[in-house]
Design goal:
The complex is a heterodimer of chains A (about 425) and B (about 500).
Chain A (H helix, E strand, L loop, with lengths): L10 H19 L11 H6 L6 H12 L5 H4 L11 H5 L1 H4 L2 H4 L6 H13 L5 H13 L30 E3 L3 H6 L1 H14 L14 H5 L3 H17 L4 E4 L2 H15 L6 E4 H10 L12 E4 L3 H7 L3 H8 L5 E2 L18 H4 L1 H16 L5 E4 L2 H13 L5 E4 H8 L18
Parallel strand pairs in A: 1-2, 2-3, 4-5, 4-6, 6-7
Helix pairs in contact in A: 1-3, 1-8, 11-21, 15-17, 19-20
Chain B lengths: L10 H11 L5 E2 L2 H5 L20 E3 L4 H14 L3 E4 L16 E4 L6 E5 L4 E4 L5 H8 L4 E2 L12 H7 L6 H4 L2 H4 E7 L5 E4 L16 H4 L9 E8 L1 E2 L3 E9 L2 H12 L6 E7 L1 H10 L1 H4 L7 E9 L1 H15 L5 E2 L2 H9 L22 E10 L3 H19 L2 E10 L8 E10 L6 H20 L19 H5 L3 H11 L14 H7 L1
Parallel strand pairs in B: 2-4, 3-4
Antiparallel strand pairs in B: 1-2, 5-6, 6-10, 7-11, 8-9, 8-10, 12-14, 12-15, 13-14, 13-17, 16-18, 17-18
The chains are: A mainly alpha (about 425), B alpha+beta (about 500).
Chain lengths: ~425, ~500
Amino acid sequence: MADGYDPNGDGHLTEAFVEQWHTNAFGCFSSGHKFCREVCPVMQVTRNENHTPTAFHANIVAMEKGLVGVEDVADDYVHCTQCGACELRCPNTLFVGDFYRHRTRTVDVVKAMRALMVETGNEREGWKLWNERLAEHHNEPVLGDVPVSQEHVADWAEGLDIPVGGETILFVDCEAAFYRTSYTRAFAQLLQRAGVEFGLMREQWCCGGPAAEMGYVELARKHADHNVADWRAVGAKRIIAPDPHDFIAFTEDYPSYYGEGYDFEIVLGVELVNDLVKEGRIQLTRPVERAVTYHDPCRLNKRKGVHEAPRELLRAVPGITFNDVDHVTQWSSCSGGGGGLPIEKPEITDEISRRRVARAQELEVDTLISACPWSERPLSQAGAAAEQPLEVMDLFELVAQSAGIEVGGQAQAPAAEVRP
Amino acid sequence: MSVAFKSAVDDSVVDELRAIIGDDDRVLPNLSSRVNRTRVPAPFPVHRWAEFMPDVAVLPTTAQEVSEVVKLANRLLIPVVPRAGGTGLSDGAVPVRGGILVDVKLMNGIHEVDLVDRTVTVGPGINMLKLNEELKRHDVFYPDDPASYPCSLVGGRIGTGGWSLLGARFGHTRDNVISMEIVLPTGDIVEIGEGGGRKLRKSSTAFNLKQLFTGHQGTLGICTEATLELVPRPEVEFAAFFAFDDYMKAWETVGVLTKAGLATLAGVVLFDEWKIAYLRRDDEAYITQPDSVRAVVAVAMYGTRAEVEPASKVVMRLGRSRGGKYLGDEISAGDWASRHDRYATPLHGRSKEGQAVLMSWHCEDAALNYSVLPQVREEWHAIVARYAERYGILDDWGMFAYTNGANKPWGDYLVEIDVGIWEERLDDENWAGWVNCKREISEVTLKHGGSITACHGATREGDAELVPTEMGGAWEVVKAIKRTLDPNNIMNPGKQSLDEAYEESLT
C-alpha cells in the first residue's frame, strides 16, 4: 500500500488488484460523467453515490492513493446485481469504444473486488454461508433450509423420460431444478415436441457462476471442473443452457478457465426454441388470451445483447396482446435477483422488483413475461404482493401452453421458503 | 467572525445528525462515503484528494431534515456543502473545508403534475431524463437539457444556474424554474419565486428573488423542492450540420442563422478547427471528413410540424449561404442525437508526444458577445498552447460556441474551450500551472467584456479570484447579500471569493 500500512500481511493482494484494474478504473475516474448512474437498478433505489459504478472505479484509484483499504469499500461492492447496464451506458464504451477496442469493465471489477474481499477476510456473512452450503451439496441452496442434493437434482424431470448423456446435454440451473420447475419442464417438453435429442448430466453440479459472482473463485472453478469432466465423460459436444445465468458462465467464465481446449457449442435456450418455432418444428396452435409485457432479463439483454429472439417468440403466440417496452429503455430495469444481491440485501431486491412490476402495471397488462428463472422469483413475489396482483410467467411456460403442453412442476414455493 | 475555518465534526456532531435524520443508513461518516463525495467531473487535483473530503455526508429526505442539519451547522459553525448529482464542471459541489455534505439524491420525488396550470413540482434529487420519462405520458416535458442530461439533477441545475442545449428555444434552468423551496443558511425554510405565488412566471412584487437563488453555487442555501415549467412535447426535431473550409465563414453563417427570426431555433453550435481535428482523431463520423473541413455549424429546431418544416428550408438555405456544405442527414440527425455522449471521453487524450493517454475533461466556459468570438478564440488557443508546451499534461480539444440567450439567440454565446488534463501526472507544480492557464483564459474573457462563466460557476481557483473584478461595483451588493443571508459563512464556504464578505467585518 502507498503508506506501507499492512497489518494483515495481505497488502500484496490489494496491490496486484489495483495494478490489474488501474487503467480501467482511471478511464472512468478521469471521465466522471456518471451517465451510468440513473440506469443502475441498485442506485435507483438507494440513491447512494457509493452504490454506483463510478464509485466502484473511484475506490480503486483511492486504494491506489492509500486513502482506503478493502475493508473500507467492501460494502459498496455488495450493491450490484451485475446486470451490465452501466457498461452499456458508459460514454467511453458508447462512442470511441469501437475505435480503441475499449469497453469499460464494471461487472468484472465487482467480481474481482468480491474475490479480493474473500481473500482478505472481508467476506459477507450471507454469501459465506451460502457458499459453504454450495461446497457441501454442490447445488445452490436455493430454498434455504429445504435440502438440495444430487438425489433430487433431476426430480423436476419426473415422467419426462429424459436419458442421461449423449452429444447434446441439457444443463438445468439450480433455481430451475429445485424451485421454478415449471420453467424447466416447459423447456424440456418443447425440445421433445420438436424432436431434439438431448440428455441430462450424470451428476450435475451448480454451474459455479453465482459463486464466482460473489467472489468465491476456487469454489466456482471446482464446480466448473466437475461439470466439464462430466460433459467430456459422456462425449458431449453441445450444451443447451436455457438459463441466461448459466449461459454467461459457460460463455464467459468457463472459456476463461480452460482457454482453447474448451470447445463445447453452447446453445442459448430462448434462441433454440425460437428457431424451432420458426422452422415449424414446434406448432403454436392454442391461442393464449393474455395481455402481456416482456421483462428483458439483464443477462440476456444487457450482458449478451439478446432481445430479438424472445420478442419474436412472444409475437408467435396466437391470441396474445403484447405491449412491448423497447430493450434500450429496459437497460434501466432489473428484477434485482442477480449477483447475489437477494442474499445480502433482500430489501433492495424486493424494491427493484416492486418497481419493475409497477412499471408493467402501467401498461395495463395481466401478465409479466420473463425469460430467466432468477428474475421470476422476486418478480413473482412482487407481482403477488402488489395491490392489484400481476401474474409473472416464464416465456417457455407461455410457449408450452400455446403448444398444448401440460407442463406440470411448480412455479412458486410457499412464501415462507423463498429466501436462500 | 469566522472566515476560513476548517470543520469541527466530531462524534457528538455525528450523534446529533443521527438524531435529526433518524436513520443511521442516511448519516455516513465512513471513509468510503466521504471519498466518493469529493470530486465532480471537472479536473481534480487527485494528489490532494484527502483535502477535499467532507467529514460526514447526510442523505435527507425532507426539507425539515435539511433545515435541522443546517441549524446544527450554523450553531456549531460547521461548513455545509450541498450536493445533488455532483456532475458539475466546476467545484460547486466539492467540499473545500470539510464539513457536512448534504446529499439530496434521495429527495427525488415527483410531488405534483399540474396539467392545468402547466407545472411539475419535484424534489431536487430527480434527474431530468427520469422526470421526462414520467412526463411523456402527459405529452409534456421539462426542457432543461444540458450535456449532463442523463445524470445531472434538478437541485444542482438550480444551484449552478445551468445552461441548456435547447435554451435558445425553451430557455435555461432559471427560465424553467418557476419557484423553489429553499433552506437558508440559518435553517429557515422559505418559498422563493418571482414574487409570491408558487406557480407564477412573472411578478413585480418586492424583489425578484428567484434569480438570486438560481446560480448561487450552493452558497446561499439548499433547494429542497422546485416547481418547474411544463412545455408541450415538440412534434418534430430538425438538425442540420454544415461544414466550412474557414472559421470566419462559419462564424458569419452563425450570425445569419441566429438573426433570421426563426422562433423554433433551439440552438446553433459553432465548432472550430481544433474541435474538428480532435474529433477526426477517433470519431468515425468525422474521420471521413476531408481535410478541407475546418469548422462545422450545427443547427437544431424543435416545434410543431407546421412551424419547423418551412423553417427548415430557411435553415438549409442560410446554412449554405456563406459556403457551408451540408454534411448529410446521417451525421446531422445522428450527431445531434448523440450530443450528450460524444465530445468528452478521456480516451481522446493525447500526450505531447502524440500518445493516447487517459485525460480528464476540463471545459472552461465563458459568456461572450458574438462580435468578439473570432478574437477570443485565437487568444484562448494561444494560451493553452503555451501551457501545454510547458507542462506536457494538457491537450487542446477545441472550442465550441453555443447560442446563449434564452429565446434571443443572436447576441451572445456560451463559449467553451475543452482541455484534456492528464490527472495521473498532476503534482503541485503543474496543478498551479493549470490554474494559471485558467486564470489567463478568464482574463481574456474579461478584457473582451465577457463573463468568466456562462453556466459552470466561478467556484474554482483560476476563476474565483476574478469574480470581484468582473462584478465591479456590484461586488459590494453581492457581499452584503451573502453576509446577510449567511451570517456565519457556513454555506459552501470558500467559493467565488465570497470569504471577502466577512473580511471587512473583521476590521
